[in-house]
């Protein structure tokens, strides 16, 4: 009888583990192509709207020189909403998107994570 209970328990744990792994978000690789059309360098961060994740993270930013561009690849969850925040390097009162603190409203600065896609962000003066 004890052996039967152990078998049922192991089977139940295996089924639970399979359920956890099949319901997790599917990872996707995508990129953002950021064009800085300003005369000043800008700092950029990407924020997930669906979880507490920021790219590049660890209190770092993507720094983009004046009149230049940068491709920013990232791993995200398929279907995840990602918004950008940008600001003039050294002066975060001049910002775009959701801003440096991810607290500004913006209808056109969020994208959906889709495998093998590239979204373009134009930072204009």
Automatic annotation (TrEMBL):
It comes from the Bacteria. Residues 1-27 form the signal peptide. Keywords: Signal. This is Mlr4654 protein. It comes from Mesorhizobium sangaii. The lineage of its organism: Bacteria, Pseudomonadati, Pseudomonadota, Alphaproteobacteria, Hyphomicrobiales.
